[in-house]
User: Fold these one by one.
Assistant:
Number 1:
Amino acid sequence: MMEDAASARAAKLRALLEHHSHRYYVLDDPEISDAEYDRLFAELVELERKRPDLARPDSPTQRVGARPSAAFAPVVHAQPMLSLANVFSEQELADFDRRVRERLGHDEVIYVAEPKLDGLAVSLRYEGGLLVRAATRGDGTTGEDVTANVRTIRSCPLRLRASKPPRILEVRGEVYLPRDGFLRLNEAQAAQGGKPFANPRNAAAGSLRQLDPAVSAQRPLRLFCYGVGEWSGGAVPSSQERLLAALSDLGLPVNPERRVVKGYTGCLQYYEDLGRRRAQLAYEIDGVVYKVNEVFEQRLLGEVSRSPRWAAAHKFPAEEAVTRVLRIDVQVGRTGALTPVAVLVAVAVGGVMVSHATLHNPDGLARKDVRVGDLVRVRRAGDVIPEIVGVVLDQRPSHARPFVFPDHCPVCGSPVIRNQGVVARCAGGLVCQAQRRQTIRHFASRRALDIQGLGDKLVEQLVDGGLVETVADLFKLKVSDLAGLERMGERSATNVTQAIAKSRLTTLPRFLYALGIPEVGEATARTLALHFASLKALMVADEHELTAVQDVGPVVAHAIAVFFSEPHNRAVIAALQAAGVHWPALEKPSGGLLSGKTVVLTGTLEGMTREEARAALERLGAKVSSSVSPRTDFVVAGRDPGSKAERAKEFGVPIIDERGLRAWLDKAPAL
């Protein structure tokens, strides 16, 4: 085939495949058979194989092919992905509508109502019409880069269908699994001996966060788009209705169930209609979303905290069923939290068979007084997490007795620390098998001993292979122990062992934080280190001495004392010191330029990390806090400071920039 002819044929095939993919996955109205589609696809694959220069990033053949990633890079959203405020009743819906009308000064407001899908929120960034990045919602400000995996979703266009697309378009949407796809996925999991997914949302989230995009490609994920975060170049639609139509015209999948409604009455009618048809939809939903239609009115209403004033999610009532409690187990989580779980006679709740339900914590168990043999009402909270709502007391068996919560860990036998009845936690964090992986991950994390290369996959292999039982065993590892593991060659094994060796020299605050003592985070670890100056002094301190430390109350003091009194923990600490883990001697502070001052850091600093700034401020005697209050002495605001700077203005707290911070830090003593 002549070069020009090959190029023209490749372009024709790309256009045909994109057209038929859109008809099949977005419009659900195919024009050709699967066999014909496969024939066209195979022809394009062969053309690109013979002529690699014809392959383009938006080619249908490029949906799968990126290398598996060992981690997901962080992505800062151009505009925050806000959460929605929930309404659960007709009265709450009426209150929402009233607040909107009063703020806008209208007698009636036009809304767009859409189904609230039970999936995973994502943002898609198109530049010049090409998909360049996809990210999860994350905390609303920063998500995870899942571009390679999103590219495998057939309903997600790699190129927008427009001759002159917006220069930049960041689209918000929901990745989900249709009901039939979820059933097929679980059937395949069972056939391969795997564990079935609990519900479509978990399956969608797990599928999108696969390290290998090829695995995501095998999952029948779908996408609906519902909004934008950034639109640069071209006319921006003036309403939610026009926005959704514009996204659809660009080839993006938009839910056809959307509807323009008038006022409270229109919203409620849509909610009731969709509720009646809920079981017939091809996907799971857990409610309805209402959005003020006109964009300029949305801007007038603005937002509060992390949710817009112009939108709300009207949740469907959780479905309930009655069943009997067979027994109550206590599970130990990866962080050592003990959670009571009721084992039930299996019952269908919202179309899912439920045989276990959480009782949350000792306080929740005692408050609900759930006993073995009780008949209980089970609900899928948010259609996801099964929980026990209450006991059918008039049918309680005469032999039912209150459940006695254990005072020792059922896995390792260590004492259980009770946080005022709310959280029960195993004190044997350094030895408890249930916590082993999390303990090692935390110990090696960047803010602890910072062992580079010791990622989740490697930790999993070390624990499962019996190479590491406690964190002290890390320092016994040899290159030969690691080189034979999956994705670990001689060079990688050498790098990890060198990183472990390097971590032997640390600081006392880092070491204390790395131990994972319940209730002890970075700030408390620093405070303890500065107060006691030595590990030995801290380990022998009683609760009375511990409560004399700034910001250490009775609960934290009890947790620290119990942790260090546990013989197994002391043995691991001794083994770590015997392996050579050490730190420079620490002198108790005698005051500093900022002694007694409370400082808050916010925003991005250009010349240093937040951790470096915190450490330098503390060397000057300052206490670095995570929240602004009237007692804050000043706030350091970097780029994009956010709400903390606003709170500082409300309280009249002085704000300094990075240049002002540098002026203080130039006076800080060296490490």
Number 2:
Amino acid sequence: MRFIEAGDVRLALYEEGDPAKPTMLLVHGYPDTHRVWDEVAGLLAADFHIVRYDVRGAGRSSAPRDTRGYTLDRLVDDLAGVLDAIGKDTVHLAGHDWGSIQGWEAARRFPRRFASFTSLGGPGLHQWADFMRNAGRREVAGQALRSWYMAAFQAPGVPELAWRTVMPRALARVMRLSEGIAPRDGHPADTLVRDGTNGVNLYRANMFTARDVVPEPYVEVPLQLIEAEKDVFVSARLLASLHRWVPRMWHRTIPAGHWAQRGSPGTVARMIGEFARHIEYGTEPSRELRRARVAGVRGPYDDRLVVVTGAGSGIGRATARAFAAHGAEVVCADLDLDAARRTAAEIERLYRTAHAHQVDVSRAEDMERFAQAVRDGHGVPDIVVNNAGIAVTGPFLDHELGDWERTIGVNLWGVVHGCRLFGRQMVERGEGGHIVNVASLAAFMPSRLLPAYSTSKAAVKMLSDCLRAELAGKGVGVSVICPGFVSTAIASNATYRGGDRSLSESALQRRAYPPERVAAHILRAVHRDTAVVPVNAEGKIGYALSRLSPGLMRGLARIAASDIGRLAGKD
């Protein structure tokens, strides 16, 4: 650590890593110090020369004499002074909160001094003012509610009193309860009361005061915007409005709160480092970075990687095609490799890249190899559709033990393996994702003809509900799809322990509900993050009755096979 002179203050400057490597400047916000970046700095130090400093009035830096010393111009001059002190003409910049606000202005004023800029948790001050002047009333009101503290900080003496009494404990409680961040050495800093008290002047000097209007506050520096989806201080609408000010912009999201660099340091460090290396060396961008590029009109599934099991036929094949038609790259998995290859070849002929893999979803070792192959060869999937399934029909007492083992193995264990392996990949990546589990009307409609099948599908639905609750905080959605009768080959491929095979097959064909319509429901469920999706008339009616009258559903379970077949064949 060393001190540098910056006009009316002295700044504490910290450096680590090899100065011969590209320099990464990390700027903290309010009421933090440079220590808020500790975890991220440690992860980036192997590839970058890391530079941090305590902004004026924070940490070990000195404070200006009055409020006028906290204007944005002074803060940006400090940042330029740090660059001069370390002897670097060009650096990569990452800023959080007020550090991001400074970064926007510095990048506007000195674009040639920054190779790239990553903004986390804060727009530019001019861009914020434009949004508050010109956005719709609802959007402005929403952001104003999030920014209530800005007005509160204008009251003379009140914020200072709060920082000397209740604010330190309140801040620690908020970080722990809302973001799961425990205090650690250096954050919050032991200078927190002083930092919070001094930093109030950031708002008094810059917010709600007359400022020179910047006609075109554009930023020419390549800019990566990291949107923390749980940030209670900045609205998604405000961040979306920033696109118009940056010709070269990448917009990424992270399922984290305001202090994302503390709550998800690995993900934040990976995003910052990946972006800087791409700009510095021209390295091939990852799928996630390609998808983040803001350029033209993009669909919700452009550049997404989608894995579909049971993709060789029926609902799986239709789903793989539907995602590909909407811009996704699809991994088509099936026990029948030739069928998977046909689906992949069809997608490549009509749409875009697809890949075929053979996998037995019921076997843990097969699924582990498959999941690793997907990650190594294509990347972490954004969407996984656990669709593979089989059926055994007939009375319970006619089912053989092997029937139960195969049904549970494919229909339930296949889903468990897919959720466990790919869900872990999504969580470790830290950029969200979605898991779709295909169940059935049988998940909530008992039947004397499908005891093993119905049991497995009911378990899939419950698994999906449990997993949705667990992964919600990680930004990973979970949907369960429950179709009624669909015209697929499941009846012709089923094992029959009694009952009329031809009746079941003809009933599904007469129902004439194509798998493509189920695929449309799956895409809509992912887009809307819907928990449970009953599909077609019997699926929706059955789901409603299961909730309203379970006794009636148990009575319907007694209907004979011939009656079920006739019902399925009706429109």
Number 3:
Amino acid sequence: MRVRTHLSLLAAAVFLPVILGSALAIKLLLDAERRAVLRSMQEMARATVLTMDQEITAALASAQALSTSALLAHGDFEGFYAQARAADAGSKRHTALLRADARQVFTTLLPYGAPIPLPAEAVAARMRAAMMRERPTISNLFVGSAARTYVLAVSQPVWLADGRRMLLNHWIYAADMNRLLPRDTPASWLVSVFDREGGTIARGQRWQEFVGKQPNRALLEALRSGRASTVGETRDGVAVQVALARSPLTGWSASVAVPSAEFEASAARAVALTAVTLLCAVALAVLGALLFARRLLRATEYLGAAAEGMAEGRLPPPADLRITELNALQKVLHAVSTRLIRLDEARRHHLAEAEEARRLAEAQNRAKDEFLAMLGHELRNPLGAISSAIALIQMGAPAPAAERAQQIIGRQARHLAHLVDELLDANRVLSGRVQLSGVAVDLGAAAREVALTLQTQGVTSQHAVELDLGPDTEPTWVGADPHRLQQIIGNLVENAAKYTQAGGHIRIRVRAPEGAPGMGELAVIDDGKGIDAELLPRIWEVFVQGKVLSRAQGGLGIGLAVVKSLVEQQGGTVAVDSPGPQRGSTFTVLLPLMEPGAAAAPETNAAPAPGLAGRRVLVVEDNADLREMMCAMLQSRGCTVFGAADGRSALALAPQARPEIGFVDIDLPDISGHEVARALLTDPRLAGIRLVAVTGYGQLDDVRQALAAGFARHLKKPVRLEELEQAIADIASAQQG
């Protein structure tokens, strides 16, 4: 046998294990590639589900936030409609409010009051079922009665203050959900999303043709069984490999379908590569088996390392393997590895966003629960005192005790009114709808006046209050609204008293700080319980407060939020610092300095009020108890009083009674108080009549509407006898003048 033959046989003997090993390695790589492609498909399906979940989670958070609306709780649907429109702005959602019979009160898709078609019976039944649940629900695909196209709904059951049960819906167009599908997929890949019944929500291709339809039977069975992957055919008869993922939040499923031919294309290329490699190895083994074996082994080792790197999520650096086919395989490995890394990063990003949305929703829910608990406590105390006082009077208590009970009822009723006014005023301040007059105000004088007022009221009577207001000869003039400046100082001092034990110290300091030229500084410093580190970043949020030393001073947790908003609206800043628990806290306000102007003219004493005896007064109020009490109070002052329970009764009674003054409720059962006012003021038989609006609506727009309708004054409920007397006196003085 020739040496060449021996060498060839030796080369073949040496090279044969290499060839077999290479073939095995390629086989393993092919299997790994199949698994990698399937994993990438499954990751894409999971990423698609997470993207849908993110949109639904945002809708759930928005629905839960809207469900806490005071406007909704008190049945102010038109006001709540405006609130819902504002919440929908910038999103792809629309809000609808449904009654217990599944009829829609409104939808933000249409103007308020516009007629809304009745939903299909099946949809109505699902809405009624969602209303009966105690938690939010997410619907399957259905055709909306107002949108007239396929939509999805996030439903939040709500209870109104009067006990009615309603349903708050956030619904989203299926077309908008379809736009959330990944757009960087190959043209041959088909990404789809199905609801819990198998209806098509989103589809990467020909969506309008298949929306709402179920997939073929094989895929439908795979969806229902919860499998992670399956094989089947498209509606066009193309064999596909399918990866599936199901959302634990919505129960929807996403599928990624790839043609089987494309799925196996890499395997076919690898088989061809193996054949070529083997032929070349046999041919070259005769000429240079050792060199080729060495080169092939190095290439195989590199590809094996690359495959291992793919499994660990790292991308090996490219290298010249000096074999075209293996270089091509290397490119494929790099492309697949790059795609896997990107998909993993996208998945992590979506998971982080979903976690952040969940954390925000939980924080908002906790804030809502804390606020409701505080509000319930603040309301139960005065209501309990009022109930006890009424029971004492009904038991026939002696005159001193009955008088004391009456004083308690009056004081607690004023406290309830103060709570409502505080909430409304905070809403106006935080939304930036207050008008602020920027005048020069002595910051030290304002602080002194507030401190004296709070001491007189007993707020700081158990604390040692120190005033460090700087030299009297050099007052600190700042540009601010005088009334709102006192509100800022009062809120900060009350907050310090609330969290400082009896006998503790509160220091109010006014100065011109060195580090902030052009600014005046007010600091409120206490040695109370301090602020916990985890609470400090959230101290300015609405309804957030620490645990007070006395629950009687609890409040609603809105004072500091109002302070921050008022200070910033006047060009200033506010900051808080606390070394830690039981080490006190310091609140520092900086406001821009302003040159002092001319002193305001002193107020002159108002003219004495004319007598009320003999005045003819009309009271229009649908609440029988309130109407009776207003009439009794006015009769006790010598007025001749006529009462009417609705607008039409008032219009019929007025020409006979000929009243001089009318107190008219705005929200009447038949016609509005504005219509009553216009009719009375244009009746020639009632020349000279003056009207006062009495209503629970106290926003600026409500006052403007009342004045535009012809009312001379606007009073907010509950109305005290002193306010009724003052209103009559003011009108009488204007008539005499």
